[in-house]
Amino acid sequence: MTFSNFIDILWQNRKAILLSGASVFVLATILAFVLPFTYTASATFLPPGTNTGGSSAIAMMGQLSALGGGGGASSLLGGKSQADLFVGLLKSHSVSHALIQRFDLKKVYKVKKESDAAKALTAHSNFEADSKSSIIQIEVTDKSPQRASDLANGYLEALQDASANLALTESSQRRLFYEQRLAKERDDLANAEVELKQDQEKSGLIAPAGQTASELQTLAQLRSQVSEREVRLASLQYYESEDNPDVLRLRQEIASLKEHVAQLENGQNKGQFGSFSTAQVPEMQLEYIRKARDVKYHEVLFESIAKQYEAARLDEAKDTPLQIIDKATVPDTKSGPHRGIIMLIGLILGLMAGTVWVLFRVAQQQAR
Question: Of 1, 251, 295, 299, whose Cβ has the fewest other Cβ atoms within 10 Å?
Fold first, then answer.
């Protein structure tokens, strides 16, 4: 069939095609005027700690979850920014469940199951995060303008309640990280003190004095500095790449400190640290010195981690909650249905259906 033949067929059957278009257009018009008006209310907010960088929050939450400290937050992983994290939380079961219970949405959407009400709520809700500003917009569409506004604001309140139990900012996660390390170090220090006391009671030795005690403290401080920097490096690696200047600097410091520790323990750096060498100490006293060194090491490390924990806790206290930019107001103009679009789509579909029917009928006639 040539293009001219195609045009001739359409022209000869124009009445049938126009009749089809008009019929569907009328049906679409009736539908457009039968559908109830819908209203859309919107609210906007800025996630807390946005200026610290959301990628660190997500990465660290994954690590904390693996350690048993992430809790339900691990289900929210997978986003690329702080805004993505909060959009995921808005879509979570805890938030939708709170709204369904508060506004009796099973009755509103005329369903029996909460899962069906959650699906209906999702269909009536939309969340968008601006990639540049991290501002998140909540939109809720409903037949009732008041309920649309209430649901949009309800999302904000449910989000605040849900996020209150989660560490979603970098400072909160740093505080959790150091809190866990502090608890572990407290136990290690207590165990080291018990072992030292048991060794004292068994051997009758007392703490070494003079140069030995001084060098013992120096060695413990060096070892604690190594561990303290390793803790800082582990925390930094949660949200920085391996080629980050701070990561590289910490690695160099750790390597240098470990070298000094090895030299002191082997008695190979006498010029800088004195003449103390573990090879020159009787076995019983050597065991005591090692245990005393462990106690001193854990004491210094505990103090260092405690300072880091306190700094993170103070930073967390400075974090603001959700920064609500605009609360939802009752919309005074309808957002749907778009009657003109529905009618136009009906006309186009009707003409297309008429054209297909005409071509099908002509093809059948030619086949005979």
Answer: 1
